[in-house]
Amino acid sequence: QVQLVETGGGLVQAGDSLTLSCAASGGTFSNLAVGWFRQAPGEDPVFVATISWGGTGTRYADSVKGRFTISRDNARNRVYLQMNSLKPEDTAVYYCAAGPGIVSDRSLDYNYWGQGTRVTVSS
Asked: pLDDT class for 103, splitting at 50, 70, 90?
C-alpha cells in the first residue's frame, strides 16, 4: 500500500512561486503514474498535472500550462510541482495521487491519494 504525503503549501502573493512535494512510502512508487489535483472551496477536485512512471510523459491542465512544471525523482520517491506566476485562482488544496497505467487526467484512474496541502494566493 502506497502512502503519499504532500508538503510545500502556504500563503503567497500573486506572481510568486511555490514548489509542492509529494513523498511516497510503503510500496513500489517508481512504476506508478503520479498526478496533482486541486480542490477549491465548494468545488470538486480538478486535474492539474500528471507524470508517467518514468518521467518522460507529462500532461497539464490548460489553466496551468506554461506556469506549472511536474517532475519526479524515483530514487527519492518524490514528485514535485513547481508553480510559477501564481494567481489568486490557483488557491486550493492540492493533492497528489498515484496509480498504475499511463498518464491520466481522470481522478478515478488513481488509487492512492495524499491528505493535501493548502495553497493560498493573495492578490
From this structure: confident
